[in-house]
Structure formats: structure tokens, C-alpha cells
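Entry:
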Amino acid sequence: MAKIIVTEFVSLDGVIEDPGGAEDFKYGGWTFEFDRGDDGNKFKLDETMEADALLLGRKTYEGFAAAWPTREGEFADKFNNMPKYVVSSTLGEPEWNNTTVLKGDVVEAVKKLKQDQDGTIQVPGSKQLVDTLLDNDLVDQLTLMVFPVVLGRGKRLFGETSDKKRLQLAESRTVGDGVAILIYRPAASE
């Protein structure tokens, strides 16, 4: 059975919108205002190299598919060659290699994917998908790279859930210009 690891760039006020600057957001590219340092860059590279597949929402998939196929280097090679699963009811035939579209009930499709796969399935970005995964207890780890900035607007990481979700901090460290890496896992049931 695979583990699902959600990984997000997030501001102090919870914004995850357009960290790379490819969307039409007032503060797009806000993560580039900070140096993650060698340790932060190594963390992101190691995290990617340890992933066995990507699980993406359609919007994140479209952004990645527009950017990564033309890039080079070991990070790009890993993204371009690993299996990718996209949750979408509107995406037709995906052009990015090794991509499978998951249609139908999201929760059932992800449960089946998790059951059928081994290793780590990484979920970057994909706010709507992450909300669904968190609400249905399908996330095994939540990795946050928290940047020391308050954006004041934008799509926030956490939406409403049907019940509270208790997490346990498994690891924390600070890298670069005060960027906090926080790793959470579901807390044991009481």
C-alpha cells in the first residue's frame, strides 16, 4: 500500500496560491523572495527523489505539464519520468508522458490507487484535491515549507472539513531565510 504525502509551499497566513508565479495572482512567485538555502533546496530535491508517483488536481497538472517537460536536470527528469495521476472530470487525453487520468468518485479512485501502488505518492499544490484527501483521512503525511510572509489574500491551504483533524508534528527545522519545514502525520486515535 502506498503512502500519500502532501507537500505545500505556504505563507504564515496559510496561502498556497501561486508560489511559483505562473498564475495571475497579485503576489505570484512569492516564494522566490526567500532563499531556502542549501539545506532547503536539498530537502526539496530529496523529497522529490523519494517519490514514486505524483497525484495532482487538474489545475496543478496543467501548470506542471506546461513547465516541466522543457526543463532539464535531475529534478525535472524525475518529474517527467515518474507516473503521474490526475484527478479530473474534464481533462481529456493528457499530453505529459506517464500520465493517467482518474475519473469518477475522487475518494474511491484515490483509495484504489493507494491500495494498488507501493511507495510514496506525492501531492504538490492541488488545493481542492488536498481538501478532499484531508477530509477523507487519505493523507499519511503533510509536509509544509512555511515562508515568513503574510500575504493577506489568496487561496488558503485548509478549507472546511466535516470534522476536526488532529495531527502530530513529526519533524521541524528552519532553513535559509527563516523558512520552516514542518512535517505532520495523523495523530493516533484517542
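Helices lie at 37-50, 58-67, 74-81, 106-116, 127-135.
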